Protein 1
Amino acid sequence: MIGAEELLGLYEQMALIRRTEKAAHDLFMAGLVKGTTHLAAGQEAVAVGASAALRTDDYVFATYRGHHHAMARGASAEECLAELMSKATGICRAKGGSMHLTKASAGMLGSYAIVGSHLPMAAGAAWSAKLRGTGQIAVAFFGDGATNIGAFHEALNLAAVWSLPVVFLCENNFYMEYTPIGRVTAVANPAADRAPAYGLKGEVIDGNDVIVVAEAVSRAAARARDGGGPSLIEAHTYRHYGHSRTDPAKYRPGEEVERWLKHDPLDIARSRLEALGVPAGAVAEADSRARETVEAAVTAAKEAPDADPAEAFTDVWADGGAAWRT
Amino acid sequence: MADVITYRAAVAEGIAREMRRDPAVVCLGEDIGEAEGVFKTTVGLYKEFGPDRVWDTPISEQAIAGAAMGAAMTGLRPVAEIMFSDFLACCWDYLANEIPKVRYMTGGQVTVPLVVRTANGGGLGFGAQHSQAVENWALTVPGLKIAAPSTAADVIGLMAAAIRSDDPVVFFEHKGLLAVEGPLPRGDHVVELGRAAVPRPGGDLTIVALASTVPTALAAADRLAAQDGVHAEVVDLRCLVPLDMTAVLESVERTSRLLIVEENPYQGGWGATVASIVADEGFELLDAPVRRVAAACVPLPFADALEDEVIPTVDKVTEAAQALVRY
């Protein structure tokens, strides 16, 4: 059970992510972030709730919409924003960018921008943990769009037949990029309805309620650690921004957007905190700490040195270099 | 123990030596366990190391490559088999986008010490989807090391180096060489990745070859010596990345003539990279144009008579060498 104090901490993490995403958006509009971003504002509860249920040495694999996953595993707002701003202090030394935030030291083994590619990797990390007997598990976060790609199906089958300690956690935000997922998928629940084909139970949950997510992932993680094999959870959620920077998301009906904005993960957590008797002042303090952290992160990232051009030629090989011929 | 070993048995021997040495080495692939591999290149592994270290997979190339990657990032040294190299296309995302890039794009936060081994090449009449030589596919992707041995001893030595490497290695085992016997190396036999061999020295022209084209080049060199008194030097690259251009340029410095023999198609073949480097850096060394004998730019046909038309043969290499010496 998650108590008031822990929930307040989770709330603050979500508030921090929300404000970091807003800062990323604003920095992009100011011309300080290049390329593209896929913001996760609105989907914070999935990452934060799941991370609350994991051990610090568990493995997490995420997608190109992965700022929240990196931060939920301990990446700082500053190192994430610095990465987006092509700074030497970026979390991937400005070689990854928004789509590849990674914090390997915290078991966050990458954000992958080829849809579905990381599900087999998570199965492999789980296989490794099982062979090494460490009790670790792996979690793959993925979107609803990934459920229609082959790697999803290959990974579920392999994880099931090898009984691997892995949790497949679908963030169903109801749109594969610009198209409603229901229009291109043969079943109503794109992830959960496929699970029985691999002998797994597919669970559909409210992905905007951080407590619900944490409890569902806790159950799945315990099952995995006990040798019960893989689980699949489909968490319903909604993104506040478009698919990527250039997408105003005009294809989403107004009343649908309004309904989801009223089902905001931060509001839900606030209500729960209130019900647990946490004073409004404590919540406001968490909000202002998040605001101050992000403001300081933006300042620090702006002031950080740009990436050194010599970095282009490091880290291809394990010896740190890039030599391919004599 | 016999003094000789087949190329086929050398694959399993090379893997087994590393599995005995390092408990982090594990194998996965289709039919590699109890069935001991469709090419019998994993004979004995399941029996010696058991189901915890030799895993049979479904026909799921993406799951094989992706799981190997996830395992490599978390403390194991997986040796993944993709049964036919043509099937690399089924998991090309992992070889093009994931495995070679993850270390770089995370700023060096992770390493991927894995081997993807695969049966490569033609000459056995398997048709267009089971006969291709696709080393050139891997060569298009910075971040992959590429080994393609031509002898049983090199299979063992390069396998040791590939498995011990902290970088991802694509290991091409040539189907046409599986039955060929060679000396069995004793002790801790390791062939450093990226070191070419010179199985036949000569002063009149350099023939650069890889895997199956090494014995083809050696046979052509025998014929050239016997018929024409021409002494060809054969350079076996053994690896495409790292590419031992020092060895190639040193040889061309002695011979002034370069013939490249490659089984992949002429269009986009690895020989084009070798030729362009020699053109850039060795132009003054040359007394004749660089020539390439490569596969024709058509899908591989089934019938032997048609396949021989397409892939390099001793006749084609001999004729190209004769023309180059006459130039």
Protein 2
Amino acid sequence: MTAFRKFWIILIISAFGAASAAAQTGHENHPQEQAGETAHPSGQAQEHSGAAAHPAEGHGPCGHSVSVEPEFNAGDNAVHHIADANALHIIGDVYLHLPCILYAPGHGWTLTTTAAFHAHHHGNGTKSKDGYVLVHGNVMRLKNPALAHGEFEVSDYAHQEVEANGKVKTVYNAVINGNCEPLDAKTTFDGGLMGGGITSFYDFSITRNVFTMLLTALILFLLFRAAANAATRREHQAPKGLQNFLEPFVTFIRDEVAKPNIGPKYERYLPYLLSAFFFILGLNLIGQIPFFPGSANVTGNISVTIVLALLTFLISTFSANKHFWEHTLWMPGVPAPLKILILTPIEVLGLFLKPFTLLLRLFANITAGHIVILSFVSLIFIFGDAGKSVGGSAAGAAASIPLTLFMMTLELLVAFLQAFIFTMLSAVYIGTAVEEPHHH
Amino acid sequence: MLFLGDFSVIKPEPGLLFWTTVIFLLFWFLMSRFAFKPIAESLKKREQDIQDALDEAKKAREEMSHLQAENEKLLAQAREERAAILKEAKEAKDEIIGEAKERANAEYKRKVESAIQDIENQKMAALVDLKNKAGQMAIEIAEKVLHKELANKPEQEAYAKSLVDNIKLN
């Protein structure tokens, strides 16, 4: 009976995957059509463009205009779609307006919503709000202090490469009243290694990823609350329905992950392992849905995996017993020089490497899955010459749909697998930390 | 284009770090408190229930087999008893029949004996009666003889002697 039911669930999800692949191709097609249009300057953005704005090639004094689409680039397209954004695009020019909570040192907090930027195609805002603008769905800040208060019309955005200190940097500009106004991206904690760094403002907005996390947490909570209610209400009866569907996951984590790896003290850590498993699984799965409210690449964002891995690290480190520290810092039965020179440094390094691999594995797997799917979808635009050739698009779709379907099915497996591996390794790390000494 | 090609997912962002922490901690707390705890408890209870039921079934099965053995023993005992009773009854029957036969035989013997006795008695009575009658007859004869031949002594004696001989022959 369950095997049959599982088969149907898989079949339905596969069919859903096929349908959504088709839906995604449809959705993706739309902006590309716009690209064709904007080659002949029209639309709102062009109306406001002043003298300094780009000519027909899209190349002006401020750099490449974002209103003129460059040639279709599958890599850029994928990278753009996996990124977090302030604007939550639903379909066409319809956006779900999300709160923007922005902080700039010296300027204070700015509370608004993405609606304030009057975004149109591609999440490019047409108005600045207290020094902030919306570029490709992301909030950026005008460097010019004269524009830090009030609203200004933004006619266009552009970017150009600038050489500074022997490094080529991309500088973003907003075109306001015909002037090039340089922009700051939000602060990131990569120390400049990935092209980010601490800038003039911090973004604590409810972004697409935060919204998806809230939604997923809410859905999971409601599902499990219903199962828990059923479990307490029908205490001495056989489980059924939703409760029967969810309980095996709980027993699986308990019996296959927590008990064998942590041992007799597993009950203290079970809620964390279960929360991590379902949180990751839920986000992985909702990220697979290629349209609203899904598609956000949450577990494929390093900020999210950092927090989760850090929690595992903190839990395992703070529950570590004497036995663990002894074996990590001063391994008994090994000569002292060997301990000082090799063993202890390696073990200490291992302490930090463990959570690092944990966060990197989840991030890389999910991001890679999203990129591959987006690349397959991009085949349609590559074959169709960015929407100019219908025949090419059809050929691209014919190649893309089976490949995307295959990838989505694989990603479904990865969604479960990565949630499981994260939970499993967390349990293993906690297990080694709380392990009681064996009497040799 | 680098503008799009900004690989931002690898840059830790303060906002996302903050919100992930807040949301996950909240999720962890709420799920533990309101979902996982009751589910884990009910799972434990159910497992105990199932174990109890299995144990009980095992106990019942053992009891059943125990009862069956006892039943068999009782049955065997009953069978034995029945055989014993039957045997006893047969013996009793035989005894009764034997006794009855014996008694019948004895009665028969007694009756035959008493019949013989009766015959003997009757015979004796008849003899006595006969003797008496013979005596009387003798007396009558003697009377007659006396009457007739009282004078003739030798003749008388001879006569009496003939009379007596006659009687004895009878």
Protein 3
Amino acid sequence: MIALLFRDLKLAMRAGGGFGLGLVFFLIVTTLVPFAVGPQSDLLASIAPGVLWLGALLACLLSLDRLLALDWEDGTLDLLATAPLPLEAVVSVKALAHWITTGLPLVLAAPVFGVLLNLPGPGFFWLVVSLAVGTPALSVVGTFGAALTVGLKRGGLLLSLLVLPLYVPTLIFGAEVARRGAQGMETGTPLLMLGGITLATIALLPFASAAVLRVNLR
Amino acid sequence: MMPDLGKHTEAVLSSYALSLLMLVLLVALSLWRGRKVRAEMEKTEQRMSRNG
Amino acid sequence: MSIAAKANTIWQYANPKKFLATSERVLPFFWATAAICLVVGLVWGFFFTPDDFRQGSTVKIIYLHVPSALMAINCWLMMLVTSLVWLVRRHHVSALAARAAAPIGVVMTLIALVTGAIWGQPMWGTWWAWDPRLTSFLILFLFYLGYIALWEAIEDPDTAADLTSVLCLVGSVFAILSRYAVNFWNQGLHQGASVMRAGAVTGTDTTEKVSNVFFYPLFLCIIGFVLLFIALVLYRTGTEIRARRIRALLARERAGA
């Protein structure tokens, strides 16, 4: 399992720079937002938590179609399916690798982008916390979407159509934590809900992903 | 015959028109595709039975 | 009748031939009763109910809005059940019924959204508000679109049935989650409407008698929508079964040639 994780991480670092791409995309989104809504700093400050969450979510989405497709094409997935490791564990490791290569950098970089959008002082801490708690759910749900569409030639667009509605609860609670934090309000309830969703998806969705992957490998 | 709908005439009439239009379209499309598929199946079955 | 015998009577329709024969027999009845209920209910509601004192004539939209919204949700529930049946018992008719129902759900959701927007304009002063109920329906609409897109994208029918069934299960859980998330996110303008209180919801609940004036035609419309849904599902499932048979025949032909 650990060997698989390191293999995935290494491949992500090396092959075609999939590693930094999400971050650059995140940077571009945050740069474009002021052009779209105007440079007033109070306006930017009020929408910053939502924009940062949306940017992180889209950056996460961007790298999903590479999550399983490469292993599907070169037959690695068939090998993994016949390996002693259960497929549930394989998809969990895949999701973890995806989180480490896209989710984690986004969490760490978010405060920097927060400065660009004039995020209010107390907001930084809550933004990082909400992203750290919420992004694992994005990776796990994304793995499910990638497993659903892995056999398709042009699955990219379909993947977004399938995954984005599933992101709604995470986005709502995550952005709510960041927004309330930025306004200095109490954040306990949405943070607990966000954590609950993340834990539930981590616990349950790998079974669905593995089931779907088995169907696709049939 | 036509009831007086007051100032909301457009709202009521357009919602009835749009809804009924969508329902009729759905039924019409279902029937159209159903007929087509049924005809095609009969054609295929006949060809199969002729060729053995 | 024992439980086992009862179960047998349901499962015999898993045989496509049996399903087609029976649905052919009962379909005229469903089409006819659906048409009668809808025509009577809508005409009654449109021409012979008084205006609401607060909402004016817009209250007449309720005869389309509430039934279509109900069917939008019930259609998803039906797809959930048939998907489960497919996953557990592998009856093709069940999976095909789920596929046949999805476009009906889309249309129902669309009707609910459009009539809601048209109704909202004079009542709330805006076509669209990010009210929890509206937002939930929009999300439901997206789920339907994704579900149909997945069916269309996959060539092998059994694979498609499996994948869409799992998507339906996962989607249901997330749809419920979204409903609560959206509730939390914005407490809306919508009245807490439930079918049994539909008469009271219109704002004229001064006496039972007045709300009944709205309730009877509404009830008739709801029954009409349910019957129409059943007729459409039966008919479209028949279409899907035949389309699948064509596929099988062609495959056999090619294998033989």
Protein 4
Amino acid sequence: MKYQSQKIALAYMYVALALFTVQVLMGLLLGYIYVQPNFLSEILPFNIARMLHTNSLVVWLITGFFGAAYFLIPEESEREIHSPMLAYLQLLILVVGTAGVVVTYLFNLFDGNFLLGNEGREFLEQPKWVKAGIVVAALIFLFNVTMTVLKGRKTAVTNILLLGLWGLALLFLFAFYNPENLALDKQYWWYVVHLWVEGVWELIMASILAYLMLKLTGVDREVVEKWLYVIVATALFSGILGTGHHYYWIGTPGYWQWIGSIFSSLEVIPFFAMMSFAFVMVWKGRRNHPNRAALLWSLGCATLAFFGAGVWGFLHTLHGVNYYTHGTQITAAHGHLAFFGAYVALNLAVFTYMAPILRGRDPYNQVLNMASFWLMSSGMVFMTVTLTFAGAVQTHLQRVMGMNFIEVQDQLAIFFWMRFGSGVAVVLGVLLFLYSVLVPGREVVAPGPAVQAAAE
Amino acid sequence: MSGTARTIPSADPLEQLPGDLMMWVLIVSELLVFGAGLAAFLSVRITDPAGFAAAQDHLHRAAAGINTVVLVTSGFLAALAVRARCGGRRGRTRLLLAAAALLGTVFLVVKGWEFSDAFAAGLSTETHPFFTFYFLLTGFHFAHVVAGIVILALIGWKDSPHSLEVGTAFWHMVDLVWVILFPVLYLLR
């Protein structure tokens, strides 16, 4: 660790990991409710558990991004963070807001209250006071990192990262605009939801991935930057008008079907570029970084993002296909692998890379960490395949044969059981990851002969 | 690309592109979008050839033909501007760019008249699938002509040989797209 203020990232990582744990436990619970629908139905209804599952995901991913930014910006700008105190204040606001959200959801406090009540828009359910807190925290963050970057060295990595983080904060402002008209409500709602995950988050992802590649492979910065610009250009070109693939059936004009189909089909390009980038850098790289687990997560991230976001996204993005598959388990399959590949694996790659540095230890428990990668990722891939089959059956029975929703759900039971099983594997993988990152290793596992030969 | 003399050509083919790599990324992306749009147009046309032909008769083929000549000439002038700049004649470069931008504006006026005539006749994106594609494709292209004129003005102002190559590459993409749109939308029976 070159700069003391990089330590801030550690606190963000702990909070993110705590919420990650909540998220996967809620996921497991939801997976069980799918097969035993009355489980906990009085205490923790499905919709509340689902809110917690999705909200905690989004909050922990963003917390992880903030942590990654606090870690890499000092190194890239070659100076300490402008104000560590503000960074901790920002984290405190986020934690209080998150706790407020959880309590509000669980006990349905202040229902209907303008300021304190659940706002009821999917993913943007947070009470208004929490939304305001998020904006304040984001402003503090942007002030803090922008000041740091302005006074220090400017690199493509920090420029793109800041562009992404500014975009993230500004687009969130649409969460405050909630028109009465349901079509307009959805139109603006996607400005937050879509333009986050298929717009500015991709910039954050590309820049963090570029940073990891710089550190892990030792490829020239010039080469990394050229890739980074191409990835970002294609992401914005396809992603912004790609919003149209959410405007097929919400009451917006029919031409969105073509704009959405064409532009969102191109969204696969930046993800393919990111995957190619990661592998080409490793092939070209001259350095054998000792933290092989971080490299594994980085490559896994780029690969699974390509399949989850790129391929599984394209699967149902053309409006002729989406007419049948809209809102079926196909969507759930895509959502799970896309979020896991693109953003969960990215955060876990950063955590794996920075935790040993911040805690002043050599890369430790790498074997466990790599095992957690394979367990978590294969669990997630199995879940995706299972849900894809469920979605195909559901589409046929419900949308082609015209069977009613709940009858069809009964037909999908076998898939939901298998999904629950893969969920167990994911949760075990998460526990293994937590252990490998948080608990110090007592012995150093010597690399096998193959690894040693490669390193020489 | 840069002013340095190279005796050995760069091994990296990307380095040999005129202008800037990012402009070529944009050009390829644009061609993919317009190409996909035309492919979708032709696919939907198979389902209703008679309806598409009838809809096409509402367009002004002569006006679009004139516009084709206007835009290709504009592209030619922009190419001459790059040559003039490489010869160091900056005044002539700016004159040629201004002429190219002026012809771009003529294109916009003619196309604008076509659009207003179509709107006056009650045609819209919802009238018929033909017009959904017609308005989307030519509308997007129209926006690109506007952007292209802004770019021509910018490179007339900051007129390094590199900027000239980058900016005119965009302008050539704009007229290339029109040359493909014109026969498919206006003439194909």
